[in-house]
C-alpha cells in the first residue's frame, strides 16, 4: 500500500464470511443444503437502506473490489478505480457490497470447499451454477444485510449478466442496473473460447477428473493455458501491439521454442500467476455459467419479451475495441430494452484496451459512469 492512503481510497478493509443454512435449490436440479459467501462492504448504509449498491464480479473476480487488506498490499482491489470517495461509485454516498460468488475460490463455498457429507473437497461433485443461481444467493445476502431494494446492481462482463438477471428475477428489488462490457448471451465463438480453456484444464495429467485435491496437486499447466487463451481475448490487437509490438526479449532470434517475444513472456507470466491463485474446478464452473446465460431462452429468443418483468432503469456501456463482447451485442440489448419500453441510457466508449477497458478509468468512461451514479445517489438523498 502507498505510504499514505489516497484520499479517494476506502482504506484498509476486512472481508466477512456469512453463513446460510436454508437450502438453496439450483437450476441444475441439485440443492446446496448450506453455504457461505465472503463479502466486503464500503461506505455506510443509510437509515432507510436505500443507498446500497451491489457489485457483481466477472469470471476471475472476487469480493475484494476496493481498498487494501493490509498495509503491505501493493495493489488495491480489482475495481478500486471506480469505487471510493469521489469516484463513480462514491462511498461517501453509497453503501457498496461486493461478494465472491457461490462456486468461487476466494472464500465462498465452491469446489475447493469441504463437502460436509464427505469431509473432503467437493471437487467435481460441486453442482453446476448458473447466473440465476447467483442472483438468488445474492438476494438472500441482501435479506441478511437488511437491504430490501438496491439503489443499483452494477457489473462488468459476467457481472453485467448478473445485473441484467437481477432486473428479471427480482424486478422490485433494484432501481437501476448498470451493465458494462457485457452481452445478452454468448456467441458460438465465445463458447468455443471457453471450451478450449476447459479442454486445456481437463486434459492436464494433474487434473485427475477434478479430484486433484486428493493428490495434493493442481493442473497448473492447464490453468496457465486457459488463462493465456482468455487473456488474449480480453485485449485488443491495438493494445497488444502498442504494449509489445514484435519486441524480442533479447536482440536476436534464438531459433527455438522458448519465449523469445515480449508478448510470449507476458502471457506466460500471466498464466503462471493465475495458476497459483485460482481453482481449476471453479474456472470450469464459471465458464459454463457464461455459456448457459440466455434470458431469452424461455421466450423463443425474443429478448424484448424476456425483459417484460423489468421495472428498473438501465445504463449500458460498451467499448469500441472490445471484440469479446462487442458494442453490437450491447446495442442488441439496448434495442430490446427500447422495444420493451424500458428506460435505458447507452454509450459506446472509444478505448483501445479491448474487453479489459471496463477496468481502466478512461476520462469519457469515468465521466459517464460518474454522472449516472450521481443521479442514482440523488434519488436516495445522498
Automatic annotation (TrEMBL):
Binding, substrate: 227, 356
Domain of life: Bacteria
Residue positions of the active site: 157, 322, 355
Biological process according to GO: homoserine metabolic process; methionine biosynthetic process
Cellular compartments annotated: Cytoplasm
Site annotation Important for acyl-CoA specificity: residues: 324
Positions of the AB hydrolase-1 domain: 51-359
Matches recorded under Pfam families: Abhydrolase_1
InterPro entries, alphabetized: AB_hydrolase_1, AB_hydrolase_fold, HAT_MetX-like
GO MF: homoserine O-acetyltransferase activity; homoserine O-succinyltransferase activity
Known catalytic reactions: L-homoserine + succinyl-CoA = O-succinyl-L-homoserine + CoA
Pathway: Amino-acid biosynthesis; L-methionine biosynthesis via de novo pathway; O-succinyl-L-homoserine from L-homoserine: step 1/1
Top-rank EC class of the record's enzyme: transferase
GO cellular-component term (any): cytoplasm
Enzyme Commission number, as recorded: 2.3.1.46
Function noted in UniProt: Transfers a succinyl group from succinyl-CoA to L-homoserine, forming succinyl-L-homoserine.
Family: Belongs to the AB hydrolase superfamily. MetX family.
Quaternary structure, from the entry: Homodimer.
Protein name per UniProt: Homoserine O-succinyltransferase
Source species taxonomy: Bacteria, Pseudomonadati, Pseudomonadota, Gammaproteobacteria, Pseudomonadales
